[in-house]
Write a structure and sequence with these properties.
This protein is α/β, with parallel strands linked by helices. It is built from 4 helices and 7 strands.
């Protein structure tokens, strides 16, 4: 008996069943043939947060940000690089707090940028403020990602 987990494709939203033993193999979607797990940050909204983050088969680093925030924009290249290097192991999601105020309120976002890490629907930890890429990588390692 193969134990599997359902995961929506980040490109076409098709549900894919993925064997747990193959989660780290960067599986492809049965419908669109793209990688199920993205290699770039995924825009996440109030309505897509549950599926993209809380029900994700792999850990998710969520960046709560706003377009007018200089430190948030300064972190974009680091987060893009992390998304590429972590593809298949973890994913990066971005929540625009101006457009998704319900999430900002739910997670008590008081200052941005704010990074929060989830695994299996559980919040593992958070970093607040503009931090260098090395600090983010250390944060991920600290939590076994």
């Amino acid at each position: 008996m193969t134990i599997s987990r359902e995961q929506r494709c980040s490109h076409c939203a098709t549900r894919n069943r993925i064997a747990l033993a193959r989660l780290n193999d960067n599986p492809t979607c049965g419908k669109c043939a793209q990688h199920v797990f993205p290699d770039s940050p995924v825009a996440t909204t109030d309505s897509s947060f549950r599926g993209e983050v809380e029900q994700s088969a792999i850990p998710v680093l969520v960046d709560f940000w706003a377009p007018w925030c200089g430190p948030c924009r300064a972190m974009e290249p680091s987060l893009d690089a992390l998304a590429r290097s972590g593809s298949g192991r973890f994913k990066v999601a971005k929540v625009n707090v101006e457009e998704n105020q319900a999430l900002a309120s739910r997670f008590q976002i008081r200052s941005i940028p704010a990074l929060k890490l989830w695994r299996d629907g559980e919040l593992l930890g958070e970093l607040t403020g503009a931090v260098p890429a090395q600090a983010i990588e250390q944060f991920l390692k600290q939590h076994g990602v």
